[in-house]
Amino acid sequence: MPVIKVLPEPVDLPGPLPEPAVDDLRLETVLGALSDPLRLRIVRKLLLESEHFDHTCGWFGLDRPKSSLTHHFKALREAGVTRQRQYGLERRSHVRVEDLNARFPGLLDLVAAWEPDEG
């Protein structure tokens, strides 16, 4: 089984953008956000390949228009899957591992174990 990377939170982070509280996370909303294969890839990459605490959308190497990526990252944040912070003109994301594990044990293990279709 793949190992989920959880990096320590740096000091002096900007505050997170609006997101649901842990108690407000809803399974159907989280699963809805993860039902899109691109968003599932984003979360899986963050879980398994993170090099830093959080990442810009450019780190993912996705060949999509910026407006499309903005939509996908917003959907993940609003569902409570990721946390985004504003650093000047860029937004960086990381998975809310502790929050999701507390509400939905095993869910992130399933995402990490998922094998993307290479086609």
Word description of this protein:
The chain is built from five helices and three strands. The chain is of the alpha+beta class and 119 residues long. Strands 1-3-2 form a three-stranded antiparallel sheet. Strand 2 and strand 3 form a beta hairpin. The radius of gyration is 13 Å and the shape is globular. It starts with 26 loop residues before the first helix and ends in a 6-residue tail after the last helix. The mean pLDDT is 93.
Task: Kindly list the characteristics that best describe this protein.
119 residues, alpha+beta, Arc Repressor Mutant, subunit A, 3-stranded antiparallel β-sheet, 5 helices, 41% helix, globular
Set out the fold topology.
Blueprint: H1 27-34, H2 37-49, E1 55-56, H3 66-79, E2 82-87, E3 90-95, H4 97-103, H5 107-113
Antiparallel strand pairs: 1-3, 2-3
Question: How would you concisely characterize the structure shown here?
Answer:
This is ArsR family transcriptional regulator. With 119 residues, the chain is an alpha+beta fold.
CATH homology superfamily name of the domain at 42-113: Winged helix-like DNA-binding domain superfamily/Winged helix DNA-binding domain
Task: Provide a count of the helices.
Answer: 5
Task: Summarize the main sheet.
Answer: 3 strands, antiparallel
The residue-averaged pLDDT reads 93
What is the percentage of strand-forming residues? 5-15%
Uncertain runs: none
Instruction: List the helices and strands in order.
Output: HHEHEEHH
Number of strands: 3
Oligomer kind: single chain
What is the CA-based Rg, rounded? 13 Å
Q: Remind me, CATH topology of the domain at 42-113?
A: Arc Repressor Mutant, subunit A
Largest sheet: spatial strand order: 1-3-2
* N-C termini distance: 23 Å
The helix fraction, in percent, is 40-55%
Helix/strand/pairing class, anyone? Answer: alpha+beta
For the record, the CATH architecture of the domain at 42-113 stands as Orthogonal Bundle
User: What shape does the CA trace take?
Assistant: globular
- For this structure, what is the CATH class of the domain at 42-113? Mainly Alpha
Protein name: ArsR family transcriptional regulator
GO molecular function, one term: DNA-binding transcription factor activity
InterPro entries: HTH_ArsR_DNA-bd_dom (IPR001845), WH-like_DNA-bd_sf (IPR036388), WH_DNA-bd_sf (IPR036390)
Organism: Streptomyces lincolnensis
